[in-house]
Amino acid sequence: MTNAVHIQRSFEAWRDAARKLIALDVPPDAIAWIDDDSSSLLPELDLPDAAPSAFQVPAEFVGFSRLVACFRDPQRWALLYRMLWRLTHGEKQLLQDATDDDTHRFFAMHRKVRLDRHKMTAFVRFRAVQSEDGSEPHYIAWHRPDHFILRLTAPFFQRRFASMKWTILTPDESVTWDGTDLRFSEGVPASQAPAGDELETLWRTYYANSFNPARLNLKMMRREMPVRHWATLPETEVIDDLIREAPRRVEEMVKKQTATKCKSTGSAADFLPPRISLPQLRDAIQGCRGCDLYCNATQAVFGEGPKDASIIFVGEQPGDQEDLAGKPFVGPSGHLLDEVMEEVGIPRDEVYVTNAVKHFKFEPRGTRRIHAKPNAREMAACKPWLASEISVIKPEIVVCLGSTAAQQLLGKQFRVTKSRGEWIKTDFAPRVMATVHPSSLLRMPDHDARVQARKMFTHDLNLVAKALRKMKASA
């Protein structure tokens, strides 16, 4: 007998139904999952009552399943339940079997949803709509995601634009932030999106000024900025002109760089502001000439997060995307760090993120900029900025991501491979821990290695999450 289970596009609804079905030992082929966004889980399943049974599955499965549940395919629910059934019926290593069809599909769906979230954070463009009474404007954006990611991604915009009142419209559903709460409502077509305003001119100006003609790659541009999103991206209107001007601008850049000689003092201490506060440090760092890295980087990238953060995550240096955006951890490594923090229960809005070195060090390779490791002199020159950030925030916990950050705070003899996950008391914070940089997970040679590396990274951050919970409980 096949039982029909109607659920909304909700991981929580699927999870509640799946727990009951596992408790009743109902196999996957006895269930027909139905995507029904007009009703919640039907209470009158053709099944006897049963309390949810106690069972354990890998934390990675739970975290990844939340994203897979957003994949635009009604068969996702059946896949999730089939994997849950297998994990609880003797196949505990299922996630490590890269050749299994279910596992392959599971991770492929997860990657596509994660990429869609990344593109939403990059491509949403707000337009100001003035109210009739002349009060503060409301900002509205329209976006067409590939998957059902709005509820997953809305908290990002809530944190980033907390002081604005805004609405994001999508064909599936919409979300409004009124300054206090997120409210979800029905989706709307693109025709209901507002017309352009002066913000579009600002976007075009920003894009034209941040566009690097030496890195022009049309194939990559179309892949990273899909044409279907261009209608809502005002900056795309200037792309043709920028492409035509690229050869001339590259020539000018080369001449300018050849004529410019870098002059560094050897230490950032010469550029610290008289008054040490985060706003003062953030302003002053753009004038830093403590080492030669400022010559080729787009800008210095200062830390970001609350000034009373309990935890500081310290990476090595900004990457290519961070250098262009002027914000730390906005590239693939940052998204991976956000995912694992969410998975283990570390609130992202309570964390301060920064780097041991504030300028991007790279080696040009054609039109690409390839990461290069900072040397000891560059690390020493930049240390006053990191020490100042820590002295202002006074965190309880500092997490060093990778060997550069760890050696910056724990000494050049420290080895992450030997002492990762261990708590160390220092003058910087009562608890300092070192683990790998999330970028190392992305460089793993195969799926099995990535799964194992992520498991170890998640374990380390779980220790941080437990320490944070204990600290809050005793406060």
Notes on the structure:
- It is a single chain.
- This protein is an alpha/beta fold and 475 residues long.
- It has four domains: 3-119, no CATH class; 124-192, no CATH class; 205-259, no CATH class; 268-474, Uracil-DNA glycosylase-like domain (Uracil-DNA Glycosylase, subunit E, 3-Layer(aba) Sandwich), CATH 3.40.470.
- It has 16 helices and 13 strands.
- It has a five-stranded mixed β-sheet.
- Helix 1 (11-23) links the parallel strand 1 (3-7) and strand 2 (31-35).
- The N and C termini lie far apart (54 Å).
- The model is unreliable at 38-45 and 202-211 (pLDDT under 50).
How do the strands and helices of this protein lay out in sequence?
Elements: E1 3-7, H1 11-23, E2 31-35, H2 59-68, H3 76-87, H4 101-123, E3 127-129, E4 138-142, H5 150-160, E5 166-169, E6 173-177, E7 182-186, H6 198-210, H7 218-224, H8 239-259, H9 278-284, E8 311-315, H10 320-325, H11 332-344, E9 351-355, E10 362-365, E11 368-371, H12 376-393, E12 397-401, H13 403-410, H14 416-419, E13 431-435, H15 438-442, H16 447-474
Parallel strand pairs: 1-2, 4-5, 8-9, 8-12, 12-13
Antiparallel strand pairs: 3-4, 5-6, 6-7, 10-11
Helix pairs in contact: 2-4, 2-11, 11-16
